[in-house]
Amino acid sequence: MDMIVGMSTTVERLTSTAPPARHASRWEHRVAHAITLISLPSGLWRLGLAMGFPLGYTADGYQTICPPGFWGPAYLVLLAVVSESAAFLSLGLVRQWGEVVPRWIPIMGGRSVPPKAALVPAWLGVAVLTVLWTPLLAWWAMPADDMTPTGHTLVGFLYLPLVAWAPMLATLAVAYNRRHRHH
């Protein structure tokens, strides 16, 4: 009998939903939504390249960035989708699904999300994004032999907002940690 009661308690603990932590503030929601928007211009630009538009590249430069055939455009589409999906995940730091797994997800649905399960990927994301996008601060000093002057300027303006992604994500991670510190 004790074994059945013990199993019952374990099952209840694993399937119960924890009460949500303090709700994210309005500014946190705005930052998370801004992250999804700052990655959008570069993603749309990549989709344009994948559709065959040189969008600021010289003929040779375009062949380098988007080789003919299936894989060149497919890579650009995949890169756009992965980038926007990664940006979308920042919403998990301010939404309910960052605290409790949605019920429609098999096996895990309804369970509490351990704060580390959200914070570790967030901080890894901060590190990767810092390495990827901080060099864009020097975009205007970088040579662009494969681009037209107008294209170089345009791409700079499309990609420069990505520099803000890492600090914005870090801000959300700190705020998430504060909200979940005592849970």
UniProtKB/TrEMBL annotation:
Transmembrane parts of this sequence: 31-55, 75-97, 118-142, 154-176
Top-level taxon in the UniProt lineage: Bacteria
Annotated keywords: Membrane, Transmembrane, Transmembrane helix
Name of the featured protein: Uncharacterized protein
Organism the protein comes from: Actinomadura meridiana
